[in-house]
UniProtKB/TrEMBL annotation:
Cofactor(s) essential for the protein: Mg(2+)
Coiled coil segments of this chain: 137-164
Pathway(s) it belongs to: Cofactor biosynthesis; thiamine diphosphate biosynthesis; 4-methyl-5-(2-phosphoethyl)-thiazole from 5-(2-hydroxyethyl)-4-methylthiazole: step 1/1
GO molecular function: ATP binding; hydroxyethylthiazole kinase activity; magnesium ion binding
Catalytic activity: 5-(2-hydroxyethyl)-4-methylthiazole + ATP = 4-methyl-5-(2-phosphooxyethyl)-thiazole + ADP + H(+)
Alphabetical UniProt keywords: ATP-binding, Coiled coil, Kinase, Magnesium, Metal-binding, Nucleotide-binding, Thiamine biosynthesis, Transferase
Organism phylogeny: Bacteria, Bacillati, Bacillota, Bacilli, Bacillales
CDD domains in the record: THZ_kinase
Protein name (database record): hydroxyethylthiazole kinase
EC numbers on record: 2.7.1.50
Organism: Nosocomiicoccus massiliensis
Length: 268
């Protein structure tokens, strides 16, 4: 059996501030509620200090960077550091523009607990050739040789950021810390075929951090729990709309089962 510390059901009801795009706000908020966490979506710079003091973790998503709001993300991460609150940074769209890259780099420089993205986003972050299109990963970037190349590059990143865990999602999900490399292989193709799925995984990871889990365990739980929900949902569904309904429903149900036995993973 794959060895990790289970996070679901949550041992507390962590309050998670999610600074994300408007498209996925409702999905993220409900997903956190379904697993027993509490969401708040407080993005304005004027309230960040008070909000960060109150929450248990912070999730920052690069998906939407409207005028004047990019600095709010960096300010929130700085306040989280000041109050010793753990941060998850999702490098959505990294590689699309130099502006987006600069904000992502500034957030990573603040040493968040977890930095995540899909295979193409994380390859771009590591200055490897990336075949991403917008916010979607390119199929070429998920091949086995590219996976090993990315693992080596992320290992180098841990030399600069020894307290940060890096997560790259894809057909095989990889987690890289200074001490561990983990490969996870649950999930179904439907998981990535509607908007907000990656955002939800990031929020689930933040909930686990807010409950006190080590960042590696938080990543294993967030990714595997979501992907196994997808596996269960796929068996009940005909088409993407039905799948989305069952996937979100399983977020509230799977935690009451012995779901950890279904995790497909290995330390490498």
């Amino acid at each position: 059996m794959f060895d990790f510390k289970p996070g679901f059901p949550l041992q507390s009801s962590p309050l998670v501030n999610c600074i994300t795009n408007q498209i996925s706000i409702e999905m993220i908020a409900n997903s956190l509620l379904y697993v027993g966490a509490k969401p708040i979506m407080a993005a304005h710079i004027e309230e960040q200090d008070e909000v960060i003091q109150a929450v248990d973790a912070l999730f920052i998503n690069l998906a939407r960077l409207p005028h004047n709001e990019a600095t709010h993300l960096v300010h929130a991460a700085k306040r989280a550091n000041s109050h010793k609150k753990r941060v998850v940074v999702d490098l959505v769209g990294y590689g699309v523009s130099q502006f987006r890259n600069s904000i992502g780099d500034a957030l990573v420089d603040l040493k968040p607990a977890v930095v995540k993205g899909n295979m193409s986003e994380m390859r771009a972050f590591c200055k490897l050739k990336s075949h991403g299109r917008g916010v979607d990963a390119g199929e070429e970037d998920t091949k086995a040789d590219r996976l090993e190349e990315l693992i080596d590059a992320l290992k180098d990143k841990t030399l600069e950021h020894e307290n940060t865990v890096f997560l790259a999602t894809g057909p095989v999900d990889i987690i890289v810390s200074k001490d561990h490399v983990v490969k996870l292989s649950n999930g179904v193709e439907y998981n990535g075929q509607f908007t907000g799925t990656g955002d939800t995984v990031g929020a689930l990871i933040a909930a686990n951090l807010g409950s006190g889990l080590h960042p590696v365990d938080a990543c294993i739980n967030g990714v595997s729990y979501f992907n196994i929900c997808g596996e269960v949902a796929a068996e009940k569904s005909r088409g993407l709309n039905e799948f989305r309904f069952h996937l979100l429903n399983e977020l509230s149900l799977l935690k009451d089962t012995d779901w950890t036995k279904e995790v497909k993973g290995e330390y490498v």
